[in-house]
Amino acid sequence: MGERMNSDMVAVPAGSVTLSDRRTERSWTVEVASFRMSAVPVTQEWYAEVTGERPSTARGELLPVEGVSWWDAIRFCNALSRREGLIPAYGVRPGGQDADWDVTADGYRLPTEAEWEHACRAGGTGPRYGELDEIAWYRGNADDRIHQVGGKQPNTWGLYDMLGNVWNWCWDLYDPEVYGTYRVLRGGGWSDEHWSCRASVRRRSHPTFRIDDVGFRVARSTPDTPGARPA
Q1: Phi then psi for 99, rounded to 5 degrees?
Q2: What pTM, to 2 d.p., does this model score?
Q3: 159 partner at 20 to 30 Å CA-CA among 105, 129, 137, 218?
């Protein structure tokens, strides 16, 4: 199953999602345009095909790529876009300290965190899209290791591993006034407790950060419906 889904893209319908932050105790609603998201996190096989690199600690073609920074994910998106003859979504500013997103580009990109949470919930309102042991690899069942993509049940829109296995980098800055360039991480990982594997949980890290339970998945804007910038 994992090999078939390696680079499959799933259509995510438009909708609205309410995000919340426990630290600031605020919530905000975002309208999300339709877009496409990879059915599974980017695998080591797919990452190596595009970049020629194998950065992961654990090795396996159908394991999620991990040990990748936000910048690594941005570069992968642009490289994949060029490989498929698409317009890259990102332009890196001089000095390599920041990137701009061309919302009119048809290439691959990271999801916004609103897109990510909307896709994770798949129309539901609960903390998860199913029983945790059935949908996610986390501390309670992962046997202290990462697992192949697609090994648990997907949500109703056909997206696998939205919770658990690896955290997903998102496009957004977390809280620039407090954390500067830190970017958003979503989804929880194989070493996390159950409370971290919920649709609403937000974490952050520096865009150069690499660790063995952080990966990413890719998105594309639907034609004629450019992706919306984060609120």
Answers
A1: -135, 150
A2: 0.93
A3: 105
The encoded tokens of residue 203 equal 């974490």
DSSP string computed for 158-188: S---SSSSSEEEEEEES-HHHHTT-EEEES-
Distance from C-alpha of 176 to C-alpha of 183, rounded to nearest angstrom: 9
Q: Are β-strands 167-173 and 214-215 bridged in parallel, bridged antiparallel, or unpaired?
A: parallel
CB count within 10 Å of CB 40 equals: 27
pLDDT by residue (tens digit) across 56-106?
A: 999 999 999 999 999 999 999 999 999 999 999 999 877 767 899 999 999
Q: How far apart are the first and last CA of the chain?
A: 36
